[in-house]
Amino acid sequence: MAPPEFVAAIRRICDEHGIVMIADEVQSGFARTGQLFAMDHYADKADLMTMAKSLAGGMPLSGVVGKAEIMDAPAPGGLGGTYAGNPLSIAAAHAVLDIIHDEQLCQRAAALGEQLRAALTDAQAGCPELAEVRGLGSMIAAEFCDPATGEPNASAAQRVQKKALEQGLLLLTCGQYGNVIRFLYPLTIPQDQFAKALQIIKAATK
User: Transferase as a keyword (predicted)?
Assistant: First the structure.
């Protein structure tokens, strides 16, 4: 996740040059970061936000929201699509929002993220290649680097991924150099299942 200073700088540049600031909340939106949207963590706000994925719990639905002066700019009928307003997907989105509220998934995302961060931080003592743990809520990344040079270490990330897979846990490597493991588990994951995953992660990093 971007530091607040970076977001503030982007906002300032956009304001100075008349640029529309767009926040991509397709993956980070709907409780993932411990707030309904990742931008809720920042004082500076975007002009537009894109959203999809968790919006309808897997049903095909995406959306754009933003300031009225931008959203109201197209003339009636000037903005649309073949599948716009699909009633089944809209119903799914309503159900998702109800579940986020009723099951307090923003708070749960924050709590699960704290548990994962603690497990990864503990694992750093026995895994010198685990250079950084970062993120917000349950959108967490673990970056692996060579402890001597600081260079990205994709093989270390792949080693942890392989060990975890042998114990039944799927992990996803990503990043420009393939040296990052990112965590995007369901926020509705049962606690006992999550605890077992944490045990596997700790074992895989040894």
Answer: yes
